[in-house]
Amino acid sequence: MPMTHPDNARKMIACLPYAEGAYPDALLEALVRDCQAQGLRIAGVLQHDAARHDRSRCDMNLEDLATGTLISLSEDRGAAARGCRIDADGLVRAAFLIQSALDQGGIDLLVINKFGKIESEGGGLREVIAHAVSIGIPVVIGVPMRNLDAWNAFAGLLSDVLMLDRIVVREWIEERIARIKRIPGFDERKQTSVAVEDESIS
Prior knowledge:
This protein is about 35% helix and about 20% strand. By secondary structure, the chain is of the alpha/beta class. The chain has a single domain (about 15-190), classed as Rossmann fold. It has a seven-stranded mixed β-sheet with strand order 4-3-2-5-6-1-7, with helices on both faces. Helix 2 runs parallel beside helix 4 (about 125-135). The model is unreliable at about 1-10 and about 190-200 (pLDDT under 50).
């Protein structure tokens, strides 16, 4: 695992790698609630799973953090279905809601639960992640170890790798937001791009 460099001002994304099945959903939710309690405005999504008595696997739902909207992410293909059950239309809706929040302005932080298979193949929430960085909004995202190569190809030098530790990630968020808010006119931003070195996201 590469070393993190929190003093590097170019790094606008906190990547939280995790092992297969060790989803950081509880950590991300705790971080979001911490930030909201401090008055920060958060965009993005958290995943919530709901058990079903007639299925061996849970239904997946995304919570849009700006509106509280729940988005179904599971495609129901029957009790015996195997393989990926992600409903691509659900991700499209999530991306639309996130983009709408970014367009309205005033967002302090973008939180994405997972850089998943669809993102690693070039779709999903990649565009809203790139857009957030382009307008100077820090991003916190969970990345499965199996998708790290695809993540690194996407995010390049704009990504810090952090351990799954609430204090470590909170300190990263606080440092990034404090630094960005010192930029003149930051609070009045809406769609004004902040200069970002082109070493990464495309």
